[in-house]
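Subject: two folds for Thursday's group meeting

Dear M.,

Sorry for the delay on this. The cluster queue was jammed most of the week, so I only got both jobs back this morning. I'm pasting them in the order they finished. Each block is the input sequence followed by the predicted structure tokens. Could you check whether the formatting survives your parser before we put anything on slides? The first protein is the one we discussed after the seminar.
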Amino acid sequence: MSGDRRRILPLALLQISSGMPYGFLITGAFVTYLRTSDVSLTDIGILSLVSLPWNVKFLWAPLVDRFAFGWPDRRRSWVLMSQVMLSLSFIAIAALVWNGLVLDTRTLWMLGGVAFFIALAAATQDIAVDAFAVEYLRPEEQGPASGMRTVFWRVGFLLCSGVAIAAADPALWAKAGHPIGKNDAWPWVFAAIAVLFLPLVVLTIFCPPAEKPAVAPRSLMSAVVEPLTSYFSRPGAIVVALFLIFYKFGDNLSSSMWIPFMVDKGITRVEIGLLNKTLGTVSVLAGVAIGGAAVPKIGLGRALWIFGVVQGLSSAFYGVAALADGARWAVYLAIAGENLAIGLGTPAMLTLCLRLCEKKYGATQYALLSSLFALGRWATGPPAGYIAEKTSYTFLFFFAVLAAVPGLVLLQRIAPLGQREVATAAIPASEPS
């Protein structure tokens, strides 16, 4: 196993490069910079739309499947190009905010344009890295690799959220004997993020190639049509697609209203951030370690059942916190329990997505499956807000436990209870070497 882990490690480390731009744009340094620069909440909300490429990346995934540069290979050439574009984009943002630049309307939308380009390059990188993983991993490595990839993705996420935000804090600089203005550190922080991509570029170049790389599709049309027809022509493909949407539906339903609940209960933003970055992160990583180790030992089918039930019940932790009126012990318990459940379930889901993909169409098929998975998360926000407003947080959180049931019903179709592995016909037959 130690030899396998040494082979998996370079691939897993590439996830740092995927986690960094997501942490920067979604909950990290970019939003914090905008708010400390007195950008209105309305404008910040509008600028959050720059994350769209992550939700629709399957639209250009066929281009990644069909075309590539000659070096270092078909998959890594796209990863390498994306990393270079990301580094240059962060340099551009650092230049725009140099010396605490006042954000007039024109500059603000220039920042938004660069941020959109970061999301586009990051989503393209994700397509290529995931396709590389489909080709690179041996079947017995998929479970452990999914856990390790999640851990290093979280490392990248934290670098551009918690660490970057702390590094830009004037109080930290003042304690070090270098007093600065409230926004003077941001250009240095953004430039440092750009530099962090350089060792990841080196990692991409020297990462071992896949043992049996797939041949590119014959044409762009075949790259668009064949991956979809190949997947959806399999018996059970629709059921699996619905399962990907609904497996975490209950958990997503409750977690989408968790931050508003804490705010309404008077928990400060600083405390919310610290809890999510410390207790939440430790719990996620613990869950990932357990889940990644468990998948090959107990089988993917059993893992999806055990961790699916745990995910569904984790919403009850939120319900307990609501019944306790936001008492700190209950809030801490909810954060730890829910993040542990997320960590447990993630390696199993990633392993399923890997097994569903054919090497030849890895980029397009994995992008499609991960978009379905993201659709379940995206679709829970509006109904969660409506239920919480019309009833109560307590009702929403306990209702979310019941909302997990459809996902488990669909799981019974693809991996009957007690069955060790997923034996659905939607899993492709072994491809010829």
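Second protein, same layout:
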Amino acid sequence: MWNRIPVIVRAVVTGILVGLIAANLWPVFLFKLGMPTAAAVEAVFLAVYVWWVRGGGPPRSWKTARAKNFRSRKLSARDWTWGLIAAVGIAASVHAAIVVLFRLVPFPAAAFHRGYDLSFIPTREMQLLACVVSAASAGICEETGFRGYMQVPIEKRHGAFVAIFISSLFFMAIHLTKDWSLIGMVPIVFVAGVLYGTLAWASKSLVFGMIGHTIMDIGLFAYWWTQILGTFSQRPISETGMDQNFCIECTALGAALVIALGAIVRLRSLRPV
């Protein structure tokens, strides 16, 4: 009966279950066990999770399908070079886009910080470690769920364009439940999903998306959401005028996007048949 359900529906359900259930175990560990025990438990869990989703363990009948959905393959040195450039470029693009957004409209600090209070963790070092583990958890689990188990089956049946669009749409939708999901953040989250989806398709690997997603989320958790690494204090251009900083910020956004897209194109040319 499961196989009679349309591929898109099956892929969406599987991707959400595989990605979000695993990602949401980390908050449970954090609040129940505290730092640094929670970080150690999460590290072990993520190692077992990656081992299983890429085809390890039971059931053996799902082994091949899990490996395909995880996009398991051997990566060359050139894959690593261009994949890492693309990963860093996408992460930089997202942060640059957020900066530009909040030079156009006021930064709603209260909405961004709501729900991300780490004051129950006693030291700044442990708070930063919690942000890093949070980022790794989201990066690994969400890339596996959305760009792997959701996108791969749709790619095979309906092509890359449809698959990337659908995975990005649901990636955006699950983030709209957050307090920081203002109207201006919606296109940023959607385009981030498109970029990571395109990176996964072009490289035939989830590794680079996981790395880029983790780097991106370290900045999101430690700067934008918890202010551990500082506070955004720039004023919108409606107050400051079109200043030099805004021009630099727009240029940085454009440069990061060009670098990311160029690296993705290069990865596509290296992609095995």
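Two things I noticed about the second structure. The chain has a mean pLDDT of 95. The longest helix spans residues 124-158.

Cheers,
T.
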